[in-house]
Design a protein that fits this description.
Layout: E1 2-6, H1 17-21, E2 28-31, H2 44-56, E3 60-65, H3 71-75, H4 80-96, E4 101-104, E5 116-120, E6 126-130, H5 139-149, H6 160-163, H7 166-172, H8 178-199, E7 202-205, H9 224-233, E8 239-244, H10 245-248, H11 256-263, E9 267-272, E10 274-277, E11 283-286, H12 297-306, E12 312-315, H13 335-356
Parallel strand pairs: 1-2, 1-12, 2-3, 3-4, 4-7, 7-8, 8-9, 9-12
Antiparallel strand pairs: 5-6, 6-11, 10-11
Helix pairs in contact: 4-8, 11-12, 12-13
The protein binds manganese (II) ion.
Amino acid sequence: MEMTWRWYGENNDSITLDHIRQIPGVTGIVWSLHDKAAGDIWEMDRIQQVTDLIRSKGFTPDVVESVNVHDDIKLGLPTRDGYIDTYIDTIEKLSKVGVKVICYNFMPIFDWTRTDLYKEHPDGSNALFYEKNAIDLDPKVMAKKIIDGAGDFSMPGWEPERMAKLDELFKAYEGVTEDILFENLKYFLEKIIPVCERCGVKMAIHPDDPPWPIFGLPRIIRSRDHIARFLKLVDSPYNGLTLCTGSLGPNLSNDIPAIVREFQNKIAFAHIRNVKVFDNGDFIEASHRGKDGNVDVYEVLKAYHDNNFTGYIRPDHGRHLWGEEKNCRPGYGLYDRALGVMYMLGIWDSLDKLKEGK
Ligand SMILES: [Mn+2]
């Protein structure tokens, strides 16, 4: 496996590439052009500039997270073909600089959703929190909370311009069921996967977060059965998964180590994150240590290790520690993710030794 780190780009992240170089074992940067909205053209010179910078610091730029999918594609509107052409153009350009994996999601309107970006843990750190009952609120109230809470940082998927069109978007999604969303995803994949096969770029869909429908919108990548259905839409080694333990984790009936074992050959990118789920269904993001939450991180990593996983892996959201609150992107501080890297590498190195019989 290759340990990576999500970085939001120069002047767009509280963390620099020089910081990341000092975390043991991190060899790849997961990047994107974060100022691009879904459907925008990615210019070759911008792509070249970022990947040159990443390489100049000794990292690989093999994984892009994300290239966002326009809602017209998810909705299956006649305008989707133009947006799919633009998406294909981006895949082709990214392949030219050596990108191997593109992470994306197919969630209607909203990206990951939380009710509180800075919920305090008993130890005084704070983290992203989801209160089940608060989600019945008006989605506009929710959007405002997330945008305001993020301060000066723009939140991918929660761009104010998009949120201003919420009424329009909700109307457009009226009548869009799970089956229709699957159909529209299949149409998109049938157009892009042949391009990916030619270019050597794997598409890796990210599960829905949280793993259940919200605001009456369908969500289709949220359990073992949904993943199995997704993989059958287009059967290709280039149609794969970003397996995110933190997205599947809040539904305790998701047996994540079993999911990893079953679909491992289709997992291009592993997101490791821990969540602590409360009896009432609320959940908070916890340290990567398995004992601090409900995700058995050891068993997940063992599932990857047993199958000699050679894909990309990264620590996902961490808590905000040691004064980071509001000085970093929510969930993307330095310290807790760095601790997460060390926890994961500790487990991985031990598993290596055990396998070698040492
Ligand atoms: Mn994730």
